[in-house]
Design a protein that fits this description.
Mean pLDDT: 95
Number of strands: 2
Order of helices and strands: HHEEHHHH
Low-confidence stretches: none
Largest sheet: 2 strands, antiparallel
Shape: globular
């Protein structure tokens, strides 16, 4: 069995309840977005691209590091996640432009609220979050959801 399948199987053990899964479909992408949002606020030079916006070099390095982690698990998923992270970066850029120095308040509020819901979901599930056992599961959550989409569409990952 491939490593990605083993990680998904382990992650799935604490994500069987329908309510918990529903909460994860909403909260996991938002938590991922807020983490990238916090990173985007670190002062650093920016790379600006027409029709996209600007991305900080720190954000770009973060995306590259996350992509290397995903590449070890699945080429197809890592490519899709690069596009997803760049799409998130575009919306982060728009948020940062709209709210300026106050953007961190939005990221913090979304981060706290979504984690509260995550823990409510795990309380309903009756199992602890996977990342308490192994921190790499913080990065497995987003591709676990992507795995469901790929399976539904018949695309192998």
């Amino acid at each position: 069995m491939r490593k990605v399948d083993l990680l998904f199987a382990e992650y799935s053990k604490s994500h069987r309840n329908a309510t918990n899964k529903f909460i994860h479909w909403i909260c996991v992408p938002l938590i991922f977005w807020t983490i990238l949002g916090f990173v985007s606020l670190i002062p650093a030079p920016h790379l600006c691209i027409s029709y996209f916006g600007c991305i900080s070099m720190v954000s770009l390095i973060t995306i590259v590091l996350i992509t290397f982690f995903y590449l070890r698990l699945s080429l197809r998923m890592s490519i899709i996640m690069v596009f997803m992270m760049l799409l998130m970066e575009h919306f982060l850029y728009l948020t940062n432009i709209q709210f300026g120095r106050q953007s961190w308040i939005i990221y913090l509020a979304v981060f706290v609220i979504t984690w509260i819901f995550q823990f409510i979901g795990h309380k309903i599930e009756g199992k602890k979050p996977s990342f308490l056992k192994d921190l790499q599961f913080l990065l497995i959550g987003p591709i676990w959801l992507l795995g469901f989409i790929l399976k539904k569409t018949g695309i192998r990952y």
